[in-house]
Amino acid sequence: MESVVPGMTTLSVVIPMFNETAVIPALVTRLRPVLDALGIDYEVVAVDDGSRDDTVAVLFDHARDWPQLRVVRLRRNSGHQAALTAGLHRAVGRWVVSLDADLQDPPEAIADMLRAAREDGVDVVYGVRADRSTDTVFKRNTARVYYWLMRRLVGADLPAQAGDFRLLSRDVIEVLRRLPERAPVYRLLVPSLGFPSAEVRYVRAARVAGQTKYPLRRMIALAWESTANFSAAPLRLATWLGMCSFLLCLGLIAFGMVAYVAGATIPGWTSMFVAVLLLSGVQLVCLGLLGDYVGRIYATVQNRPAFHVGFDSLDDVPRAATVGPIGDESRAPVVGARG
Ligand code: UDP
Ligand code: MG
Predict the structure, then answer these.
(1) Of the residues 18, 55, 186, which should be mutated to test ligand 1's pocket, given the most ligand atoms within 8 Å of the CB?
(2) Residue 99 CA: which ligand 1 atom is closest?
(3) Which tens digits make up the pLDDT trace of 208-259?
(4) Which helix (H) or strand (E) holds 110?
């Protein structure tokens, strides 16, 4: 499969899997008819994320009579986003859909995504969860906080409630492949690239079998990864703390002076008090300044392109979708991506 030229197959479906033995039979039973009915050539890239159960063996079992099923195994558990990276980088399709193994996102929507991509001429089609009443109250609320925070970090063009069920064109995949980032968070990275996009809404179902592989610990890790990936704001916290303690310090100096004049202090107290306050404020401000430069170094190392050219009339004829009116976010021409 490695020798296959990228873009030769029409559709790739990338599925990261970690200890998913219990869901694979249901997944195959539901996914295969959907893909066969599309009437196009396709591949399914199942990425086994270092499972400790029989995921790989079960996958190979199914691959025997499903030639389009391709199995990629990571040597060790590297996390959902890393497994997704492995799959996206190896997929050869003209269009690439990423899907969770647990059938929470309906494979039937792939047909709608493909249709939207082809008819509207867009590069990205987000699967947007119109209803997630099958998720727990806890999951729904943590998700709401997460998307609220991320919209503030990435900007308003982040589709709300869009997880990792989406379709990407070969152009997007090639841009993603060239990014040197070690740990991309795709649900933020893809919107930040600014490709023309569309949405397909669906109802999120309950997991068909097995347990969630995203316990609270991993959810917090993803939230932190997302924040640190897109913002140096936490680094700048020291500056703000420094400013606040500096202001506080001014007030306390005045208080110390009054106490000194009133003779209400023991000798040496005022000078110590003021020195400690002043120095800690100055130190925090300096730490914040350092943080700001570290943030800039980080952004440079991430090496995200400052902009993506949608088209150049000198080179190519614009597709309908890339020349929509500015303001319509899903159609706006790409003039620059947020760094
Ligand atoms: N997953 C993975 N590696 C991990 C954790 C999860 O490949 O370390 C896969 C998992 O098999 C599933 C997808 O990522 O296909 C999403 O995980 P899950 O459905 O458990 O997350 P939830 O829907 O509960 O947020
Ligand atoms: Mg799930």
Answers:
(1) 18
(2) 15
(3) 888 888 888 888 888 888 888 887 777 778 888 888 888 888 888 888 888 8
(4) helix 109-120
- 3-state secondary structure at position 80: helix
Note the ligand closest to the C-alpha atom of 20: 1
**What Å distances lie between residue 262 and 257, 258, 268, CA to CA?**
8, 6, 15
Within 231-268, residue ranges assigned H as helices are 233-261
Residues sharing a CB contact under 8 Å with residue 311, sequence separation 6 or more, in sequence order: 317, 318, 319, 322, 333
User: What separation in Å is there between the alpha carbon of 123 and the centre of ligand 2?
Assistant: 25
Q: Which residues line ligand 1 (CB under 6 A)?
A: 16-18, 20, 49, 77, 79-80, 83, 100-102, 104, 212-214
Round to whole Å and give the CA distance between 220 and 214.
10
CA neighbor of 333 nearest in space, from 314, 308, 316, 315: 308
pTM for the model: 0.78
> Any idea what DSSP says for residue 322?
G
Ligand at minimal distance from the CA of 216 is 1
Angle at which helix 186-193 crosses helix 80-90, to 10 degrees, equals 50
Q: What whole-number distance in Å separates Cα of residue 81 and Cα of residue 184?
A: 7
Rounded Cα distance, 230 and 25, in Å: 38
For residue 214, report the distance from its CA to the centre of ligand 1, in Å.
6
User: pLDDT of 96-119, one tens digit each?
Assistant: 999 999 999 999 999 999 999 999
Residue of 207, 213, 217, 226 to mutate, ligand 1, most atoms within 8 A of C-beta: 213
